[in-house]
Specification:
The structure is a homodimer of 340-residue chains. The first copy, chain A, is α+β, with helices and mostly antiparallel strands. In chain A, 36% of the residues lie in helices and 24% in strands. The longest helix of chain A has 18 residues.
Amino acid sequence: MLLAALVTNPTIADLGEQAVIQRIIARLAMPAWVEVGPGDDAAVIVPARGRREVLTTDALVDGVHFNQAFVPPDAIGHRALAVNVSDLAAMGAEPRAALLSLALPGSMAASALDGFADGFFRHADAHRMTLLGGNITRTPGPLVINVTAIGTVHPRKSLTRAGARPGDDVYVTGYLGDAAAGLAMLRGSDAPAATSCGGCVGRYLKPEPRVRAGRQLAHHGAASSCIDLSDGLADGVRQIALASGVGVTIDADALPLSDEARRWHADAGTDALTAALSGGDDYELLFTVRPRHRGRLRGAHRRIGDLPITRIGVVTRTPELVLRDAAGTHDLPRGFEHFR
Amino acid sequence: MLLAALVTNPTIADLGEQAVIQRIIARLAMPAWVEVGPGDDAAVIVPARGRREVLTTDALVDGVHFNQAFVPPDAIGHRALAVNVSDLAAMGAEPRAALLSLALPGSMAASALDGFADGFFRHADAHRMTLLGGNITRTPGPLVINVTAIGTVHPRKSLTRAGARPGDDVYVTGYLGDAAAGLAMLRGSDAPAATSCGGCVGRYLKPEPRVRAGRQLAHHGAASSCIDLSDGLADGVRQIALASGVGVTIDADALPLSDEARRWHADAGTDALTAALSGGDDYELLFTVRPRHRGRLRGAHRRIGDLPITRIGVVTRTPELVLRDAAGTHDLPRGFEHFR
């Protein structure tokens, strides 16, 4: 079995469970606050002093959240962690640690697992996150990756979806619809994606969670509510409106679209605005700011750096979700709904 | 769609994502240390004062870790949490909270999801655990349930696999091989399992993690190492030996077998000893005790209650795993290995 593993490209089933776990544990270094790390029944950590702890879990399923046919293994590893880090960012939290649970098809190549680990750990290093432990099992179905991400936030500084009030301005970071355009480009291309590619394709493959933006918004007390955009702008607006008991009017002409996405939609004859409203996977932050806290937002923005922040609408008292353009007002389209 | 859901037994796909999430969130009540609970991007909690935090994650896959054909939904919910709580128990930790991530086939009946939630939350209540959040996604493959369990332990009190030393006695809680016998009974039976059934079948369907035993062993400083038995005694012995850099000799005649398991194996013409060594899913604790700490073990046992604790072997300097019986000594058989 071992010889076969040396001369060919072995599968997960060739390697066996212990070798698969060792392949991952071999990459790890532990900070002092980790008293027991991976390899025992559970991890033991010292909580961060004077902080609240922030916890989230999210799964990616092959064929639902990505497609191994055109998403390279390191991008899958990056995304599996990034979608969770993005949830921490939306709370204004600082990432600290993660747990990783893999359900692996026996036919998966060991090289694909190595590529996955490359992308996962490079992203973890970028956010100074420590892998505390995990679990590996086989599955007769598709690859399922479950990540639990753990962060910290100062008491009373965390951002939630529930604080928007009528009159607050609505903002979004970065550009909308890039990831959806990148996914469409990948689906329409015969060539496998290069993992270093930038632009819309890169934004789909390796989204950058807005951790710095979330932390600065929280630190400056600038945002009254916040959410990350995983299922499109319209869905994010709806979630903040529901949680806060308010309405939102979005200004269609204000939505930030990248030049590349605009060009691609023009060439494809598709509607860039629809993509910006309903396209998922952008992992930008959508947040609201009280008008009297615009100074705080400017303070936060100076510390965030180059990331664009665009005012795209306003919070209203009537609980309606409205899209306003030159032609008038319309109902905001519904976002992507799982299971349908 | 809603009407259909009222008059028939709807599926997950009929209900849609929001309704599925609401069905679960509706069950929850939050203690004061939860500042943000389920429904936001992440949960925010106040860490337990003066404690270490203990974290573990484990997944169950339909067709691998259970079979919906003969494991009722509430037993699946119970087991999904129990296997994680058992990892906390093995560290000597007190359970506190959980995160739940479900990958659901669209064809799954909503009533099965309700049954799952019944079993999950009944077990969570039994251990005073709070569900902090989770994630629900569809999958084209089998049901996958991923749980992250969070507990607390006093500083310097946590148990690990790594502390066994030559001369330590080896102990196990409860009975070995009951769950494997129960699984075999279920597989050999035409009748669906009653969820309230006891004995070996009950031990397989609804294992009771040894939280009280783990906490008392940790509190009294009685155990030098500890692990929970998920993949059989032989595997647990091997893990402690590897982590501690020691050998172990197990006394075959000392292994605690229940009368029901003995009778079942006698009737089936199978070997009860093999089942006790390699049968998984018992979720008993295997631990070692320094001879001079036997008094501490007695102190812990008084607080644990009725649960039997049996001395089954000794830790040795030479790194061999030995099974000793009236006929002499043998290599300890290998435990269950995933992926093979």
